[in-house]
């Protein structure tokens, strides 16, 4: 899928080496199609890394996508310069009058805090409320999924006795759902979190359905709203091969309590390079979301979303 982003974005040289098609403005204007307008609220501290991970997964269908990156104005990033954010990111006030085919809300390293104690929580809730009328479909990732379920359905998160950390198998409970078109009966997905939303709480909500369920502490993997407007992914399908490895050694170096990521290092030996067994399903997951939940359903004139809310 051609991805249209700012030509000076740091991710472009890396993606170009992977043969990811990045389209410039001149070529985009010659295509007689409307690009899908996708906005990514990037709450991760290492924003450039997350940009690469997500753009990689958005690049596998023949559609044109116009990507806008969003950051919270109420949070001062410690890992990304203000200059970088000013050049490549927008704030909510700058885009709130626009309409989008899709929104991605990433995870964030704040899951052990109560939602209301996250200092950008008020701004985030404004965005989630705005998305009801200005976005056709929203994809929530990890903490973003827990935050969305809490805000939209009042389902609070529950602390885990032990960090859910590793690669976990998930069984597909709704195999006919188009999100899993082309999937096997089970797939693998990375998890790295201290909290969850209990399966019993989700199952008791009439507006939600569980699409995929993980093993042991992973529990829920993917949840969908029955109106098909929101998908909640509890893991990190976008993670690179070495992301969990970097987290593990980072915490070891900082003398933080951390266990080996499960089902990750061969023979549980951190000296061995992990094998990636989730990239194909992750790519298919994002492709199916774009195709079946966005492209096939979103109005051609995206501003008609306003009419649909009237």
- What order do the SSEs take from the amino end to the carboxyl end, as H and E? EHHEHEHEHEHEHEEHEEEHHH
| Number of H/I helices | 11
CATH superfamily: Class I glutamine amidotransferase (GATase) domain
CATH class: Alpha Beta
Number of strands: 11
Decide which structural class fits the backbone.
alpha/beta
Major beta sheet, specifics? Answer: 11 strands, mixed
Q: What general outline do the C-alpha atoms trace?
A: globular
Any idea what the radius of gyration is?
19 Å
Terminus-to-terminus distance: 33 Å
Q: What percent of residues are in strands?
A: 15-25%
Helix content: 25-40%
Uncertain runs are none
CATH topology: Rossmann fold
> What would CATH call the architecture?
3-Layer(aba) Sandwich
Count up the domains.
Answer: 1
Mean pLDDT: 90
GO cellular component, one term: cytoplasm
Subcellular location: Cytoplasm
Family: Belongs to the MetA family.
Catalytic activity: L-homoserine + acetyl-CoA = O-acetyl-L-homoserine + CoA
Descriptive report:
The protein is α/β, with parallel strands linked by helices. It has one domain: Rossmann fold (3-Layer(aba) Sandwich). It is 32% helix and 23% strand. Strands 1, 2, 3, 4, 5, 6, 7, 8, 9, 10 and 11 form an 11-stranded mixed sheet that branches. Strand 3, helix 4 and strand 4 form a beta-alpha-beta unit. Helix 1 runs parallel beside helix 3. 40% of the residues are buried.
């Amino acid at each position: 899928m051609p991805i249209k982003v700012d030509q000076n974005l740091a991710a472009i040289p890396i993606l170009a080496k992977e043969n990811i098609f990045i389209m410039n403005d001149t070529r985009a204007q010659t295509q007689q199609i409307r690009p899908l307008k996708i906005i990514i609220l990037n709450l991760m501290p290492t924003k450039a890394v997350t940009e690469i991970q997500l753009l990689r997964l958005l690049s596998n269908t023949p559609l044109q996508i116009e990507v806008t990156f969003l950051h919270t104005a109420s949070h001062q990033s410690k890992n990304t310069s203000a200059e970088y954010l000013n050049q490549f990111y927008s704030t909510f006030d700058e885009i709130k009058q626009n309409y989008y085919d899709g929104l991605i809300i990433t995870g964030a390293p704040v899951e052990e805090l109560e939602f209301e104690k996250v200092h950008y929580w008020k701004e985030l809730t404004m965005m989630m409320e705005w998305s009801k009328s200005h976005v056709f479909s929203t994809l929530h990732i990890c903490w973003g999924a827990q935050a969305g379920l809490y805000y939209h359905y009042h389902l609070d998160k529950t602390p885990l006795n032990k960090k859910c950390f590793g690669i976990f198998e998930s069984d597909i409970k709704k195999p006919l759902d188009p999100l899993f078109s082309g999937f096997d009966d089970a797939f693998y997905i990375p998890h790295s979190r201290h909290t969850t939303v209990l399966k019993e709480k989700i199952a008791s909500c009439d507006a939600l359905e569980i699409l995929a369920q993980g093993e042991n502490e992973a529990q829920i993997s993917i949840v969908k709203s029955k109106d098909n407007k929101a998908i909640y992914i509890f893991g990190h399908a976008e993670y690179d091969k070495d992301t969990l490895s970097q987290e593990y050694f980072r915490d070891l170096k900082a003398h933080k309590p951390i266990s080996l990521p499960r089902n990750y290092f061969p023979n549980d030996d951190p000296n061995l390079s992990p094998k990636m067994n989730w990239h194909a399903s992750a790519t298919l997951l994002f492709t199916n979301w774009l195709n079946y939940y966005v492209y096939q359903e979103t109005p051609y004139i995206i501003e008609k979303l306003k009419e649909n809310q009237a």
